Each structure stands twice: as C-alpha cells, then as structure tokens.
C-alpha cells in the first residue's frame, strides 16, 4: 500500500512538473518577398506573414511598405523607394482603360520587369543576399517576377508562391494545374465560364497571345535578371519555375470565382486580409454611419487608381448623381477639397474600408472591382457596382453580374444618366442584396478560416 501511495505521488509530481514547463515552439525562419508597389498586393502578403510572426516564427519580409509599429519577430527589408516606380511608369492609372487587352498584357509584363529588377538590385536586398543568413522557407508573391525564384535556390529553402488574385498562367504552370480555355476565361477578360463560341475563340486567342508574349517578352528578361542577381552555379530559371515551388496559395474562394480544376498543392485561401473581428470605427465615422437613416453608399477606386485623376466631366457627372440621392455617400478622395461637393457627400483620403462595409447601414459599394474589394464586399454581404479599368477587375465584375450581386459599369461609359440608372437598379431591386448576403453566408461557412488553412 505504501508503495502504491508513493508511486501515485511520484506520478502526480511528475505531471505537475510537466504542466509547469513553458510551452515549446517549433519556430522557423521565413523569408517573405512581396515587393509589388500596389498596396493591395502587399495587404494579402502581410496578413499571412504577420500571422506567422504571431505564431512564433521569425519572419523577414522584402516589401515597399515597412511597418510603423513592427512586431518583435517581424523584420522589414525596406524597398520603399520602388513605390515611385508606379507613379513614373503610369502617372494616371485611369489611362489604362483606353488600352486593348493585348496592350494591357504587354504593359503588365513591363511593370513586372521594373519591380523585379528594382527589388533584386536594391542595396538592402543585396546586403541580405551577401549575408550568411539562412532561411527555412521562402514565401513569395507570384506576379510576373520569376527571377525571384532565385531566392529559394540561394537560401536552399522550399518555396511557397502566393497569388494575390486567383489562378493564372503565372501560377498554374508552377505546379502543373490544368487550365482548359474552353471554360476558364483569361483573367484580363470579362467572360464567364459559360462563353459563347465567339467568346471561346476570343479567349483562346488572348490566352495564346499571352503565352507567346510571356515566352518572347517576359521570360528572357526574367532569366537575364536571375543570372545577374544570383551569380555562380545554379539551375536554369525554367527548371526553378517547374520544380522549385512546393505550394501555391490563391487569394480566392469558390464563391467568388468559377469551378475549375486544381492540383492538390494549389489551395484557395481567399480573404486572409478580411477582419473576422472588425475593429471599432473611429468616433466620427461611426457617427456618420449610425446617423445615416437612409443608408450609406461607399465609393472607392482602390489603392492604385486615384479618384482625383478623374476627368472633370466624369467627376461632375458623378457629383450630380450623388447630389440627387437621399443616401449619404462616403468617397475615397485623395485631395483636401472636392469642388462642387454636395452636402450628402463626405470625402477622405483614407477610409477603414473593411470595417465600413461591415456596418449594417451600408447599402452599396461602388468599386473598381479589385479582388480584395470584392472579397470584402461579399464577406459583408454588400452589393457592388464595378467600374473596372485594368487587369482582373473585368473578370471579377463579370462574375458579379452573372451571379447577381453587382453590375458592371465600364469606365469609358460613365455618364450622369448611366450611373444614376445603375445605382437606382441596385438600390431598388432587393435581389442584389439577397444574393450578396447568400454568398456572404457561404463564404463565412468554412471549416477553417483562411489564415489557419494557409
């Protein structure tokens, strides 16, 4: 009996000792590469990298938006001077609305070359490459920057690619995901997965032209930058494109896209940046939203397009329409003043968009149609009017129209009458809000939130 008591006491004491030990964390050193000067791209990457830091990993991130209040184990490699590239490369992004699809593809490749080269040649990046640092994992944005795959080879680390929008040729080729052009539209087109015969021909020609442009205009430049930035023995860049990426994370969700095939290591994690627990709104903004008894319309063209660069005739047409509404309009306007602003329009250079869309008084979101904005809108169940200008914005708004949670208004077709009619249709036809809220319910009903899944 005495032996049994002693044994039980020993076991209890051992258990207490184990309980009292501090928890062990298997932390890794992770290098993130998110150098694109479009803030929306960085927002997706930073959401993932900050979560990894909060979970105990030591994170280093190459980016042009260094944190003002960095986490203890989150280090920025600042390439912020490259933010000027966007302004010099395309002073007015609204001009892209006048370009053809092929011109947009070519321009996008040129932009990718600028960002890729500026990142590789930046003094802070060169210091990192010349250091003796080691990393367990490389996580890089996959956006026309194939030369950055050299980081994974240089640090002898596995690579995860992150697409800030859905699957595209740039990411599917990394892991061998099929993309049948018969029902998967090119990301720069407004087609849906139910294309007519003529649309399928257009989709095929655009996809083939993109492949040729990539092989002739993009890949040789990327390969040359890779050779220069990473001297010494190394595999060809084409080998890295097909064999160095272990996993692709897509900022997408099936409720916001079309059915398509994926290989097992290409995973949708759309909405990593969305606040599952919205922050408290600033008092002045909360007062505006709470007091808007007739509802609120939120208008923003995103982080790259500038409302202040709208031509005068379009700006005045928009203001006349807003003045005729009983709703309060919150407009992301980048100047201190807005000429001829009606009383029901409130302007700020920055609004907490995600938190605003979560307010019950918001009736409509007028957006450029970027994937981050449409994701936030659908998460909160707010219908949209999209004014796409370039890139995947047309595809996103084509999906919105087909599904029934929004309408597409081409930028070049903005007139007072057309805008007024479009707004009235969304506000008076309850089906748009019903569909948006139905998608919101599906979007929220996930076994894991996107950050946990990633």
From TrEMBL:
InterPro entries, per the entry: UDP-glycosyltransferase, UDP_glucos_trans, UDP_glycos_trans_CS
Membrane topology: Single-pass membrane protein
GO molecular-function terms, A-Z: glucuronosyltransferase activity
Any Pfam family hit: UDPGT
Keywords, in A-Z order: Glycosyltransferase, Signal, Transferase
The protein's enzyme class: transferase
PANTHER family: EG:EG0003.4 PROTEIN-RELATED
Family under the similarity heading: Belongs to the UDP-glycosyltransferase family.
Protein name per the record: UDP-glucuronosyltransferase
């Amino acid at each position: 009996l005495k032996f049994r008591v002693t044994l039980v006491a020993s076991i209890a004491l051992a258990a207490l000792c184990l309980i009292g030990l501090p928890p062990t964390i298997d932390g890794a050193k992770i290098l993130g590469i998110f150098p694109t000067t479009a803030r929306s791209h960085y927002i997706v990457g930073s959401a993932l990298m900050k979560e990894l830091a909060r979970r105990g990993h030591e994170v280093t991130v190459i980016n042009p938006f260094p944190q003002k209040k960095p986490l203890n184990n989150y280090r920025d490699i600042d390439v912020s001077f490259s933010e000027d590239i966007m302004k010099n490369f395309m002073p007015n992004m609204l001009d892209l609305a006048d370009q053809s699809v092929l011109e947009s593809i070519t321009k996008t490749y040129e932009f990718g070359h600028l960002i890729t080269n500026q990142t590789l040649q930046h003094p802070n990046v060169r210091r990192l490459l010349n250091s003796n640092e080691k990393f367990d994992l490389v996580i890089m944005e996959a956006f026309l920057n194939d030369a950055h795959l050299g980081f994974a080879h240089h640090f002898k680390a596995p690579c995860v690619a992150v697409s800030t929008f859905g699957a595209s040729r740039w990411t599917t080729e990394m892991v061998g995901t099929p993309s049948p052009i018969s029902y998967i539209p090119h990301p720069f087109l407004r087609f849906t997965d139910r294309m007519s015969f003529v649309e399928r021909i257009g989709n095929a020609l655009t996809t083939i032209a993109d492949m040729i442009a990539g092989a002739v205009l993009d890949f040789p430049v990327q390969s040359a930058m890779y050779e220069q930035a990473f001297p010494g023995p190394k595999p060809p860049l084409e080998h890295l494109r097909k064999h160095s990426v272990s996993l692709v994370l897509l900022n997408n969700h099936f409720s916001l896209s079309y059915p398509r095939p994926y290989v097992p290591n290409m995973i949708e994690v759309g909405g990593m940046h969305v606040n599952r627990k919205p922050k408290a709104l600033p008092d002045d903004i909360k007062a505006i939203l709470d007091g808007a008894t007739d509802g609120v319309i939120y208008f923003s063209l995103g982080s790259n397009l500038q409302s202040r660069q709208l031509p005068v005739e379009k700006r005045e047409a928009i203001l006349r329409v807003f003045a005729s509404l009983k709703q309060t309009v919150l407009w992301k306007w980048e100047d201190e003043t807005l000429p001829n602003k009606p009383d029901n329009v409130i302007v700020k250079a920055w609004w907490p968009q995600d938190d605003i869309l979560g307010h019950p008084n918001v009736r409509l979101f007028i957006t450029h149609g970027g994937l981050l904005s449409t994701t936030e809108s659908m998460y909160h169940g707010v219908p949209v009017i999209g004014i796409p200008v370039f890139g995947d914005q047309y595809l996103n708004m084509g999906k919105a129209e087909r599904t029934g949670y929004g309408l597409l208004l081409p930028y070049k077709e903005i007139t007072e009458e057309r805008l007024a009619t479009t707004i009235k249709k969304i506000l008076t036809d309850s089906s748009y809000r019903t569909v948006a809220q139905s998608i919101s319910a599906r979007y929220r009903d996930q076994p894991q939130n996107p950050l946990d899944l990633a």
